[in-house]
Every structure is written in structure tokens, then in C-alpha cells.
Amino acid sequence: MKRAGIVAWNTFREAVRDRVLYNLVFFALLMIAAALLVGQISIGIEQIVIVTLGLSAISLIGILMAVFIGVGLVSKEMEKRTLYALLAKPVRRWEFLLGKFAGLALTLAVNTAAMAAGLAGAMWLVQGKLHAEDAAVLVAVYFILLKLAIVVSLALLFSCFTTPLLSTLFTAGLYVAGVFAPEIRAIGKVTGNAALDAVAMAFSYLLPNFDNFNVIAAAAHRRAIPGTLVAQNTLYAAVYCAIALAGATMIFSRRNLK
Amino acid sequence: MTGPAIETEGLTKDYTTGFWLAKKKRSLDNLTMQVERGEVFGFLGPNGAGKTTTIKLLMGLIFPSAGTARILGRPVSDVGMHNEIGYLPEQPYFYDYLTARELLDYFARFHGFGAAERRQRVERMLKKVGLETAGKIQLRKYSKGMLQRVGVAQAILHDPQVVILDEPMSGLDPLGRREVRDIILELKKAGRTVLFSTHILSDAEMLCDRVAVIAGGKLRGVGAPKEIVGVQSHGMEILFEPGSGAGAAGIMEKAARMGDRYRIEVAEGELYAAMEQLRAAGAKVLSVTQVRQTLEDYFLGLMGAEQARASAVEVGEK
Amino acid sequence: MAMLLLAVIPAGFASLWRLQRGIDRQLAAMHQEQDELVLRSGKMLRLLSLEYGAFLADVYWTRTVQYYGDRRVRQVTNLETLGPLLDVTTTLDPQLLPAYRFGAIFLAEKAPQGAGRPDLAVELIHKGIKNNPDFWRFYYDLGFIYYWELKDYKKASEAFLEGSKNPKALIWMKVMAAKIAAEGRSRETSRILWREIYESSQDKLIRENALRNLKLLRAEEDCEYLDGLVGRYARSAQRMPERLEELVSAGLLPGVPADPEGFPYVLGADGKAHVHPKSPLLGYPKGPPPPR
Fold it and tell me: Which residues of A176-214 are buried (b: 16+ CB within 10 A; e: fewer)?
């Protein structure tokens, strides 16, 4: 566990040194522009627009980072052969994977927290002050982070057995499919075909249901998000990550590092 | 603690290739050997012979198709044993966003050293490989030779019992080779076991207690360097321009013409006699050199030309 | 270790399955409080969707169908976001014909089948005609809504006539125009219209709805006939019957007749025959018919 932590810290350091966090500048500019312009284009729903736009940007930037850095976590180390010297240390392969996962998750957490602070600033600018109900935005940010953790675990899983390009396609594909999981589940109901219903049902439960984590609209309307949902979503993300990491470990532990 | 430092038994590695992974290629075939404790062991063979495959099997980077390998009596799948092993990969590459100092510190953490001890060890290693002034530079700016030095430093950072070096001399200038040789001798003096692979015969001759020769994935012989590769006596080559003096006929018969010059190869003991003859013939001697048998020559002799060509083709395919 | 990992995967998915159902309940509760449509402006959405507008429209359409289907099952009559959903869908993809046609039917019908907003339905169809002037069936839909829901027979006749000008339109569009202009509402016209909807549609919901309305027309006819019998009974017995069974006892009927779904007709307090209140003909989910 401690060794996984060492790997995680180095993964975080790599992201920082590769200037990954520069995206924050882009986000900050977006928020400033939105805060300045929102009053001009939409009267009465400034706060809603700011929150929706901000949370959507946090989600999108996070997804891009999670996918593009995630697919390189393992494959880059294999390709550059930096992994050889590392695995000659007393590091088990699952510790390496767990460390890589935790490192990118930490990077995303820091990045997302910074963006959330920026969003809070923009909200404060638009409303003049922050309300207690705005805490729903924090929950929405937390849900985005949970979603990102699942994306990272999937990217890591694919990264263990296929090329970065294919990993990117698979991860992005699963993400889109996961967003539409409720629609997939409803296919059978709409068509009324029992066999199709069963297949679609099974498939939708295997997919990561990213719709669970989408409370952007509720947050924008300052509606309280039930604590039960927070707990359930946390558990859901943890279990899904565990599944993906278990799969990754099973594949990677048998992998010959040519 | 007794028993060999490294032992392999029937170690075999097949790679599957082709679109359906249907083709099998054997890159190591039934390797059984032992490296004794405190020994410097050379692993000799042409490129693609199976040296790196063997070393990766020992390090648990790849998994054997058959056979077993043990280091210090423990199976190679036991990662905990890596506290006792140092490893230098072939053409090493490290996290290029780190400085040499950071990299060594990072690796040292896995061995559980405290902060003070890490700092002390890292400084000592940097000095040992001659990088104390470059410790603050990111590795992306390092030359191949400098990376090789960092690689050696990280391999011996934790003072391991067994050090496995894959082509430690490659990419180094003469001074660097000398330094690595010194490090290996130092390790030997400290009672450590060193296994290193090379395709350069003189390195092996100079350092090794024993060598193993591997080619085409098969073990061709194990023993002291002299026994294995020193059996053929080395001749002397004389390059000369012929004169017009008497007595030239005898020696000229044996000489081979190379343009204006002639070349003759004689046994070491006959050198002076031949020189005498040449002098009598009024020939102008241009150079006298020892004929050093290259490893390639040795392999040609060992396997026969055909087999060597076959193994060269395999290498080409890989 | 490997066995342990192998166990994590099925166990994980099993627990996810249970967890998902809990999450679904939470999310459903949240959505029930207030139906969300963050962006009600289809134009804005089309700008934001880049070149994927058509795809997004399909997603919206799927959502709409689900929404509608779901509401029908739950018997909740609040369908206020149906109009905006359809508007967004058809703005994203103006050529998505089913969205106009089915959407108009969803919108126009009275609760519990629809949103009871024929005005919005007319608006939607007009939008469809504007974007797809060649599609003559929109005039059929328009005429139908005027005829069936708004009972504006002049406008209905005009719509059928307008549609009949399209050379591709079926000839009976003209017939309908004339018939409605002359007779206004008649059972025969209604039956023809519903039959056309039933036969021209591929959609299960639409077909079911059309079939139900056809059966309802049958029931209407039956009730009229029963009303005649009740009148005869009242004249001979000098009093109004309280139940239809009295007509059976009087020998006017061999038994209490049932509607096409098998539910017996009942006599209302107004002295007229009605469809059984539990009959699925009234738009409620099918249950077993009561014992006869």
C-alpha cells in the first residue's frame, strides 16, 4: 500500500511537471468571460447559466484529462521502458496499477478543486454573495469527481492490454454509452420486445451508469441533493473502480513486458 | 546461506507472433545454469541470442513458458526478494521529467530507507558514477551514456546481494567503460554476485570468473573465459611491402597479396623467424598486430556458418 | 490472489445491480419534484450541439417517448414539459417527422392519454408543415386535431382540403374535406379517420390508441342502442330502470352486453348507458374484466 502511494505521488508529480494543470488558466478565462457576459445575454437566470456552464466545463475538462492521461498511464511506461527499472524494485504489479490510478485521481481531484473554487468565485461575482443552497454545486462537483475516477479506472484497464489509440476509443465509447445507460435500459420497454429488453437491461447494468452522477441541472436550480444519493453514488463509484482495477490487475499481472 | 545465487532449470520462453498469435517463436530453449555466490558471471552471445530474454525472466518482467528460475533460493515470482537484487535494463530509460537525484530518491523509497539515509545514499551513488554535478538536471537532457550511468547507480543503490546488468558497457565512452568495470570489480570485492550480459569478448575476459555462451536461444557452453573462448591460439599478422632480396620465395608463398602490400599470418612462436626471413628478403614491414578473435568469429566456429546465418535471420525477423 | 480478483468482478456487478436500483429510486424522487429542462430554447441547443444536432434530436425524441410512456404508466397528468421537449426536438432536427406527428397526438389528447393541449399540437403541426411543406400527412394530422379534439369542423375541412392539393395525397383527403364540411362530426367520419391512423402507423402506442378509439366508437354506438332500449322499457314500465339487468328481466335483452374489452355496460344516474368505469377503453391500464 505504501509503495502504491509512492507511485501515486510520482504520477502526480509527472502530471504537474508536464504542465497538465495549465488547463486551469483556460477554465479561469472561461469563467471570467461567462461572469462578465452572462448578465448581457440572459436576464433572470444568470446564476443558473453560470452554474450549468461551469459544471459542464469542469466535467468536460476532467473527462478529457482522465481519458488522455489515463490511457497513457501504463502503456507509456511500457513503451518508454521506464517500467523495467521500477518493477525491479520491490513493487508488485497491482501496487503499480493502484498507484497509477491513485496518482491520476489525485491530479484530477486537485484540478477539479481548483476549478470548483473558480466557479465559486464566478458565482460570487454574479450573485454578490454565496448562499447556503449553493452547496448543491459542491455535491455536483463531487459527483463529477466520482465519475472521473471511474473513467480513469476504465482507461487504465484498457491501457493494460491495448494501444493508446484503441484505449482512447474504448474509454470514450464506454463513457458515451454510460451516459446513455438509462436510454439503453429503456430500449426494451419502448419496443416491447422481451428478448431485446433482457439484453438491453443486462447491458445497461454492465455499463458504468454515468447518468447517476449528473445532477448539474438540480445544482443549477439549487435543489438539495439527498444524502442517500451521495452515499449510493460514492459506493457505486468505489465498486466500479474496484471491478475495473481488479480486471486490470488480472491482465497486467500476466502480461509479458517485451 | 548456501546454494547458488542464481539458478535456472529448463528455462524456456516462447513468444507467439502473427495476427492470430498462432506462430510460436522460441527465444530461449531449455536453459539450465547456475551462478555461484560472489561470482562475476558473464553472459555472452550475439544480439538476439536470448540474453535479454533470460534476464527479463529472472527479473519477473516476462514469464517462462516452461522451467523455473530461482535467485538466492527464492522463486523469481517473489517480488519481495527484489530488495536483494539490483537490475540495469538494456538501454535504460527513466522518467525524463525527474532529475537524477529525484529518480534515485524515488527508487530508494521503495526499499524503505528514511529521508536522511536516502539523501546520503543518493549522493554516494551519484559520485560513484560520476554524475554529482549533473544531479540537478532533468533526465530528458541526459546523453545515452549518462543515462547508462544513472542506470548503474539505481541498480546498486540499495546495496543488493545480486546485481544483474544487461549490456552495462553499451553506449559508454572508454572512460565510462572503465568506471563500470571498476564498479563491477568493487562489487566482487564486497562479495556480491554479478551477472552481466555483453557481446564484447574483452569485457568478459577481463572481469568474469565464468562465462556462459548463448546463441540462438540455446546454451553453448559454460566455464572460465579462457576455457570457453581462449582455446584457439591467437596468431600474428604481418603487413609488408616486398623487397628484391634473396630468400623471399619461401615466405612469399605463404603471403596473400592485398594490392601493393602483402599480408601474412603466423603463429605467435614463429614471429621472429618470419621477421628474420622478411628482413633477409629486404621487405619493408608496415605493421605487426595480434589477431584477436572476435566473438562473431568464435560463434562462427562454434555453430558453423550455416547456423550462425540462421540465427542472424531470426534476429532480423524480431 | 487471482481467484480473489476473479471473485471481485461478479460480486461487484451484483452489488452494482442492487445499488443502481437504489440510485434509480433516488433520482426518480428527485425528478418527480420538478421536471427539468435546463435549456428550453431549441435554437440555443442547436448552436451548442455543433454538427450533432440531428443526433441530439434523436436523443431528445427518445427521452420524449420515454417520458410520455412513463407518464402513461404512472397515470400522472402533469405533462407540462412535453410541449417544450417536442419543440426542442423538432428545432434540433426539423425533418424528424415522427416527432411532429406522434408529438401532436401526445399533446392533443385529453388526460390521461395526453397533455390535453390541442392548441400546442396545432402549433407543432404548423411548424412541421413550415419545415416540410411536401409532407401532406401533416394536413391530415392537423385536420384530425381540429375535427376530433377542437371540434372546429370548418378548420378541419380546410386542412383536409389543403392537404389534398398535394399531388401525392390520397384521394380520400378530398372526400374527408367534403364530408366534414357537409356533416360536421359523424361517427362514420370518426371511424374512417381513426382507421386511417391505425393502418398508417407503425408505432405500437399510436396503434393501440387508435384501436382503443375505434372500440370506443363501437361502444358509443352500443350505448346509443341501449339508450333506445331504456326508452322502450321506460314507456312500457312507466318508470326509468335503475340497472341494465332490469332490461334483461323484461326480456328486452338476452343478457347485459359488454364493450369490446369485455366490461359490461352500466346505466348511469342520468338514465343513459355508459362504458364501465374500469374499462380500459377509458384509457386506464388493462385489468381483467369483472365476472359476468
Answer: ebbbbbbbbbbbbbbeeeeeebeebbeebbebbbbbbbb
**pLDDT computed for residue B108 by the predictor:** 95
Mutation site for A-interface testing, chosen from B61, B158, B164 by largest number of A Cβ within 10 Å? B61
Q: What is the pLDDT of residues A143-153, one digit of tens each?
A: 999 999 999 99
Interface probe for C, chosen from A190, A216, A221, A241 (most Cβ of C below 10 Å), is A190
- What are the DSSP calls for C125-167, one per residue? HHHHHHH-TT-THHHHHHHHHIIIII--HHHHHHHHHHHHTST
Specify whether the backbone of A207 is left (phi greater than 0), alpha (psi in -120 to 50) or beta: beta
Phi first, then psi: what are they for B268, rounded to 5°? Answer: -55, -40
Asked if pLDDT for residue C274 goes beyond 90, the answer is no
The one-digit pLDDT tens for each residue of chain B (318 residues) are 578 999 999 999 988 876 676 778 888 999 999 999 999 999 988 777 889 999 999 999 999 999 999 999 999 999 989 999 999 999 889 999 999 999 999 999 999 999 999 999 999 999 999 888 888 899 999 988 889 999 999 999 999 999 999 999 887 888 888 889 999 999 999 999 999 998 777 788 888 999 898 888 888 888 888 777 654 556 788 888 877 665 566 777 777 887 778 888 888 778 888 888 888 888 888 888 777 665 556 666 665 554 555 554 444 333
Q: Which three cell numbers stand for residue A237?
A: 463509484
Among the partner-chain residues B63, B81, B92, the one whose CB lies closest to the CB of A85 is B92
Whether the Cβ atoms of residue B36 and residue B195 lie closer than 8 Å to each other = no
The ipTM is: 0.88
Query: Sheet harboring B218-223: ordered strands across?
Result: B85-88, B162-166, B193-198, B40-44, B210-215, B218-223
Contact of C34 with chain A, judged by CB distance below 8 Å, is answered with yes
pTM: 0.70
**Mutate: best of A82, A83, A249, A253, partner B, most B CBs <10 A:** A82
Handedness of CA B65, B67, B70, B75 (dihedral sign): positive
Which pLDDT belongs to residue C34? 47
Strand B261-267 vs strand C266-267: parallel, antiparallel, or unpaired?
unpaired
pLDDT value for A53: 82
Chain B interface with A: residues with Cβ < 8 Å: 15, 56, 59-63, 79-83, 85-89, 91-95, 97-98, 106-107, 109-111, 151, 154-155
Which chain B positions have a beta carbon within 8 Å of A15's beta carbon?
none
Q: Are C115 and C149 in contact (CB under 8 A)?
A: no
The mean per-residue pLDDT over the stretch C157-174 comes to: 84
Kindly determine whether residue B92 and residue A90, on different chains, have CB atoms separated by under 8 Å. no
User: Collapsing DSSP states into helix, strand and coil, what is residue B210?
Assistant: strand
A179: contact with C, CB 8 A cutoff: no
Out of A186, A218, A228, the one facing C66 most closely (by C-beta) is: A186
- Residue pair C240/C224 in contact (Cβ under 8 Å)? The answer is no
The band of C42, judged by pLDDT with boundaries at 50, 70 and 90, is low
Element of type H or E holding B9: strand B6-17
Check A84 against B89: CB less than 8 A apart: yes
Whether the CB-CB separation of A178 and A210 falls below 8 Å is answered with yes
Task: Between C178 and C74, name the one with better pLDDT.
Answer: C178
Residue of A nearest to C63 (CA): A183
Residue C32 CB neighbour total at 10 angstroms: 11
* Cβ neighbours of residue A210 closer than 8 Å, sequence gap 6 or more: A147, A150, A175, A178, A179, A181
The DSSP output letter for B49 is S
Measure CA B43 to chain center. 6
Q: Name residues whose C-beta falls within 8 Å of residue B127's C-beta, 6 or more positions apart in sequence.
A: none
Would you place residue A204 in the very low, low, confident or very high pLDDT band (cuts 50, 70, 90)? Answer: confident
In Å, how far from its chain's centre is CA B60?
21
